[in-house]
Amino acid sequence: MAACDICPRACLVDRELATGYCGAGSTPHIARAALHMWEEPCISGTRGSGTIFFCGCNLSCLFCQNHAISHGAAGVQMDAGALADCMLQLQAQGAHNINLVTPAPHVPVLCKAIPMARQMGLRLPIVYNTNAYERVETLRRLEGFVDIYLPDIKYVTPVAASRYSGAGDYFEYASKAVLEMQRQCGVLRLNPEGIAVRGLLVRHLVLPGSVDEARRVLGFIAKALPQATHISLMGQYMPCHKASFAPLNRKLLRREYERAIEHCVSLGFTNVLIQSLSSADSAFVPPFAAQNEENIAKL
Question: Model pTM?
């Protein structure tokens, strides 16, 4: 990574010597690695998703729930071998899958760690849990390594993307990235127990005052992806980090969420997950503090 161009930022920094926009160096910092029950039911299942939270992010979302780790280094530094061991230990704990959260800055390491883990006995699906601000060229490096893509399509309009996440070109890249994910893995498939085994599950977090943005995202999905595409339409937004101004300084209203759901239904989607608005609670945000090293040490 002498001149890093992994993501659309294309900072071109030497990550052995410095960090780029994402704040990540050449060796990932893992802020938390544990069984996680708070993903979609087909991801968390009954035993939990083997979730690995990476530090570093190429967006600057004002409402980021993981802001404590999104642009800094916390937890434990792991090279490819240590990551492979981590995956195997999550498998031993009973995880349904290995869930890589905010993995984009670390694709070169993952391209080494995943096949290494497979050779060592990893049998679980790999989930690539991303903000979708990705380069297609980078995603192609992951073909054959990732089983389930879990992108969050945040915005269509450059105004919203720039104001809320500091990336006016977000949709230009996210739209192409999601099409590449669909090409690689297809429509989501579940096993007889209802657990995801392969395919694409698209998330969209409905923001307060942004139902029109949700409609645009859903409209894109309807035009670009199969009608059977699995969608997680999330209502869990709550103000945090730098979300101190209207409309981000309040939770999503029930009528806003219902309007988004109604539009989703009107487009004819057949596989849609919705949430109780009670999920907008800080109790569902994983802890990123001193106990993280203890969580990882237990693996």
Answer: 0.94
